Structures are given as structure tokens and as C-alpha cells.
Amino acid sequence: MTSRPAPPPALTAATRRRFVTVTAAAAALALSGALPSGGEASAAPAAPLKNDPFTLGVASGDPLPDGVVLWTRLAPDPLAPFSGMDRRSYPVQWEVAFDQRFRRIARRGTARLVPEFNHTAHVDVRGLEPWREYFYRFRCGGFISPVGRTKTAPAPQQLVPRLSLAFASCQAIWEGWFTAHRDLAARDHDVVLFLGDYIYEFGIDRGVRPGDGDEHNTRQALTLDDYRHRYAYYKLDPDLQAAHRSAPWIVVFDDHEVVNNWAGLASGDGTTPDDFLVRRANAFRAYWENMPLRTARLPQGPDMQLYRRLGYGRLAEFSMLDTRQYRDDQANGDGTKAPNAATADPARSILGFPQERWLLDGLGESRSRWNVLGHQTALTLLDTASGPGVAVPMDTWDGYSASRDRLLGGIADRGVRNVVSLAGDLHRSVASDLALDFHDPDSRVVATEFVGTSISSGLDGQDLDAGGRVLLNENPHMKFGNFQRGYVSCEVTPDLWLADHRVCDRVTVQDGTVSSRTVLAVEDGVPTVHQA
Question: 0.90 exceeded by the pTM?
Fold first, then answer.
């Protein structure tokens, strides 16, 4: 019998007292304005707002057949302390309409935005029609927000003829402009998956946009206020705001929303577990506050139950994964190393064993035509060593090859159809066939993978760098590689998956252009990547 890793050590009482923990029930009450007097939200009457509070835009997310989450944050002076808001709660009216001019209202209501949640709205609108486009907006203090477009998911038994989705990741703001988001916003997507590194915790004192002279951005994010400020700085970007307005987003975090290459209780930078978990709690809280997530995802101190499953009728099912919070620490001191007994240890997991079981059980029960994994980093083998040796990154699934074997083997054993892995993190595009044994050219292929490049991380890049050439030469299962910035726009039908790799000529200037580098295809029932 395979041994299981020991549970994480219990937090000390002193550490527990350092967390600001608010229950999901209290969050729901606060955000609906229903907290009783003396509750966690301030009952003081709102002061008049002198400036537009919707400077950070609007967003929607986690679509269901009958609903969607609507998000905004009141921030009349977004980079000032507390974003220019006081410590009172504010009523905000929201509207969902069938048309962009709001002549036909589908749903409306009022949410009370409270200082405890940084005056953010997470309105869980229900009673909408399946697979329908809607428009939404907010009102507060005489100000009206920008209008966002959203779309519900299909009904559970509905097989829609076409799904348009985009996926993206990794937007280091100091390394480039968000040109890819501008292009993404101009295309008619039904849903957008953002797969991690929405912000970077590093101090921004260099690069194309070196913090825009904001002293707060020059230091590393550690406190709740630090992370909140960093989100405000990112969300001021007009192209990012436009991408959020264009379609509902389904999001997961990776490492930089907290700290580079963190793993479970390990910070990766020598911080003690107790101190790191306080930082993790701060980072998770700010992440939830700034993403279009339901109150059920509200962190409890340093814990956030983010992995989840969203159905798109009979056409697609999205299993959104968390490969950070439950993973064992990276083997061999992290970095890029030769695989060994540590990387293959069956007692180690990148998902944690409960999430592994949840994933395989869900895939086995799925009746969808396409089964999509939305997660952080590459499943495929990434041999980066030129020649006979092998060197793989310890931070990807290569450093947890037993987890990968259990997943791919479980897909084969259960006969799961059309598994497509979507990931980010690498700052390059990689398309691969996922086989049971990457070292055997005759091994059965059971899934396909598209790793998308970064929005801006890595500066301009080039079509194919030296590292990309090595990857293509050493990994015959790899069918495509590119080292430019951009994102992937996909069209999914019952018979075909098309992945259009959209690339930027430059992101180090504001007037960069975006074009299609290639379109790759996967056919129903044939888990291999080929040119469209």
C-alpha cells in the first residue's frame, strides 16, 4: 500500500490569533447588507462620494446555467490608503440586463459593501437563463460603473454547437504592457480562464513600467494592505479592465499571488511556517477580494478551497485545480535537476491526495464531450537538457511524476474522453501529446495539453529561443513551441478543438500589435495535437 504524507502540523495558538478570519456566512450577510447591528460590518451611514468610485472597473465570473458572480471595488483614489474610502459601509445598486442600453432589466438589487472586505462586491446573481448573454453595471453615490458583458453556462443536458474560450496567465506589469488583453477583449469569448500570476509580489523598481513612481510598489508585498495595493495598481490598467468587461472569468492562483515558488507550508524563501502562513492568509484574502469569486471561496485564514468544477452542458466540463496549496515541497531543493527517486516518490503529490481523488472521481463521472483541466503549470515532460542527459523543472509536474502517473493512468483506466490540459507559468507556449510513458515512443496517448505563454512576463521574447529549440529537440511528444507574449483563443465544437495562439510583436511599447502565430487542433476521440 502506498504511504500517505503526514498531515500538515497544527498551527500554534499564537499564529491562529494573527489571522483575520471571517466566515463565509458572515461574508454573505455583509455583502448583502444584512448584517445585524454590531456585526462585523460597520453600521455607520455612508458619507457622500466626491469622486468616481469605479476606477478599478467591473468583472464577472464562475458562470452557472442560472447565474454568475458580479464584482467591483469602490476605489475613488485607488492608490491612496484604503483606496480613498472611509471605514463605513456603502449601498451599491446592481443591474443585469438583456441589452447593453439597459432597456430590459433581467435582475437588479442592492449590495452593501463593507470596509472589512475592502468595499468589494461579490454579487451572486441567480434566476438567469442558460447560455445567454447579459450586460451588467453598478451604481453608487450618483456614479455609474462601466458596463460589463457576461454569459451564463449552458443547461446541464444542453449540447451547444460552439464554445469560445480564452486562457491566459502571468502578467508581470513591469515587464510589458497588457497588449494581449486588449486583443482578448476585442474578440467574442464566452468565457476566459486565468491560470495564475495575476499579480507579482516582487517590488517593482525596474522594467518598462517601474511602479509608475508609486513608492508602495517598490517593496515586496507582505501585508494585507500591500497585496490590496498591488491589485489596485494592476487593475488600473485599461486593457486588463477591458478584458474583464468582455466576458466572465474563471480564475485560479499560482505562486506569485503569494510568493515565488511557495509550496504548501513552505515559503521558499526561508520564512518560518508560522510567519509564512500569516503572509499566505493576507495574500489569499486580497486575492478573493479582487477576483469575481463567490463567498463560498472566502479564505479561512491561510486556507482557501479554490479547486472546483464548472459544467458547460454536455460540451465541456472545467476542473479548475490548485497545485500550490496542497503540494509537497519541491524535490531536490527546487530548480532544474535530473529526475530521481525523490521526484518519483509515490508518497509525494502536487495536488494533495484528496484533490487527486476528487479530480479522478469527477473525470470518471463526466459525460461531457471535452474534459478540461485548468491549472497552473505543465503536465508534460519538459526535458531541458540537450543531449543524452535529462533535466526537468522541480516546480512543475515533472517534480511530482507519481502524481502525473496517477492522473494519466486514471484517465486511461476510466476511459475518460477528450481530456485537454490548459496551463501557464512557463512564459512560453508549448503544445504536447500526453502519453502514459513519455520515454516510450509507442506509449498510448491519453490526453493533450496547451501551455499558454505569458501576457507580459519575460519582455518581448521571440518566436523560438534557444531554450525552446532544446525543448522541441529533446521532447518528441511536444508539437509546438513559441516564446512570444500573448494568450490562446480556443473554439470548441463537439467534433473539434481549435487553439489559436495569439502573439504580440512587442509588449515593451504601448502600440504593439497582436497576430495569430498558429492554429492547432485536436479532434474528438483522437488525443493528439496537429496543425489545423
Answer: yes
